[in-house]
Amino acid sequence: MTSVTALEGKSSKPKKQRLTPRQARFAKEYVNTGVGAEAARRAGYEPDCAAQTANEILSYPHVGEEVRKWRERLKERLEISAEKIKNDVAHISERAAIEGDNQAALKGQDLLAKMVGAYAPSVSVHVDASAAHLQALLNLARRKEPKTIDQTDIP
């Protein structure tokens, strides 16, 4: 099926949208506050529907790109890096342990472990098997020789 734009000889490639001044302000305020509704209000959008407006605006790729740029600028200005954050958390955790605040020290250690990937991701598996299936698996497990399970093994 041919699209209308192809029939008209126009490119079907989407145009890159430009930020409106309010969208640009929204992106900056969103990075500053971290709250979409507040950023929408500060950018001049209708306060009564600020949360809904924020969700809509954040779905626009060109606004998301602007938010990413503002975050990068902020990160550079504050000299934030993953390594610096890890070091800061380690120092805070050590200080908490020295001061006897074991809960804070453990929380810091837990956060560091997550940051370095020390925890394996949890996996949940659901198996829907009848008692007959389970008994057949148990019988096969008790055998010395490995065997492929097929429908004939299940009573």
Question: Could you explain how this protein is built, in words?
Answer:
- The longest helix is centred in the middle third of the chain and has 18 residues, at 61-78.
- This protein has eight helices and no strands.
- It is mainly α.
- It has helices at residues 4-7, 21-33, 36-42, 50-58, 61-78, 82-98, 102-115, 131-142.
- The protein folds into three domains: 21-78, Arc Repressor Mutant, subunit A (Orthogonal Bundle); 82-115; 127-155, no CATH class.
- Helix 2 (21-33) packs across helix 3 (36-42) and helix 2 (21-33) crosses helix 5 (61-78).
- Helix content is 61%, strand content 0%.
- 10% of the residues are buried.
